[in-house]
Every structure is written in structure tokens, then in C-alpha cells.
Amino acid sequence: MKLTPRDLEETKLVATLLKKVKQLDLTEVKSISARMVEHQPFMMSLLLGYRFDVEKDQFDDVMRMLFLIYLFFERKTEIKKKQIDAEEFRKHQLKNGHYLKYLEGTKGRKAIAKINEEYLAHLRYISLFTGVIDLAQTQASFQRIDPEVKGIVVLGMKTLIDCLEANLPERGA
Hints:
The protein is mainly alpha-helical. 74% of the residues lie in helices and 0% in strands. It contains eight helices and no strands. It has helices spanning 5-22, 26-39, 41-50, 56-76, 86-104, 109-120, 126-138, 147-167. Helix 2 (26-39) packs across helix 3 (41-50). The longest helix is centred in the middle third of the chain and has 21 residues, at 56-76. The protein is globular and about 50 Å long. It starts with a helix and ends in a 6-residue tail after the last helix.
């Protein structure tokens, strides 16, 4: 996979946002939550759905992932233009499910790596998904999470990014 100058610039933005979401105080959480509810209420319902699957401190990490995604799209796109909904999310979730089924039948590390590279090459904001993976790998409470639940959460974040990419025009576009 070849990174473009745009990818490198967005990586800097993601790094800045990662620092921010790891150090949020209650006032910032309330502010981001209010904007999210106003502009992309489905994201808040998605977050609330995870509270039944994870422990309290793990829920905070899921919230950080969603905030990272929201803040990134708030800066890069016209996030107020179109609200995504559950149907849109399901459509992209189904595509990701097909990918996982296909991958499940693949043998060999090289073949799996090639399929993953081709699949992820379609992400417009690869640096953002990398930031989500970083949070999943580095947050202490997320290390204790059941691997299946962790996979479900990360796949949910990937699906959310897919929805937002497909539906939100970039700023100035």
C-alpha cells in the first residue's frame, strides 16, 4: 500500500487527535457529545449500544475511539450535511462481514496480508483507521477485553468510518 502526501498530513492530524482523546476532561466530553448528538446522533446510539458489551473503563476506551472518529470527520468533512443512520451502518457492516467470511477461508500469511492490503486500500482515511487500531492496542483496559468483543468493536469502528466516508463531502469539495 502506497501512502500519499495527503495520508501523511492526515496522520499528523490523527496523532494530534489521539493525544486529545486520551486526555479529555468532563467539559470536553460533554461538548463533543453534544455536537455528536446534534450532527450524527447515530454515533451516540452506537456508543450507547456498546455499554452492554464492555466494562466501564473499556466503555471509556470505546468512547475515545468514537470521539476520535467524530473529531476527525468534523475537521475533514461537512459533518453537518448528512446524518448517517442504522440502515446505512447495516449496509456497510454487511460488506465488512462478507470480507471477513472471505478472509476466513484464506490460507497462508502472505495471502491474508495481500487480501487485507487490497481491502484497506479502499479506505480514503487509512490514517484514521490506524488511529482506531492504535487505541485498541494501547489503551490499558482494552488489553483485558475479550478478543471477540474487541474484534466486534474494531469492526464497528471500521464500519462507521466506511459510512461517514461514503456520505460526507470533504470540506471545500
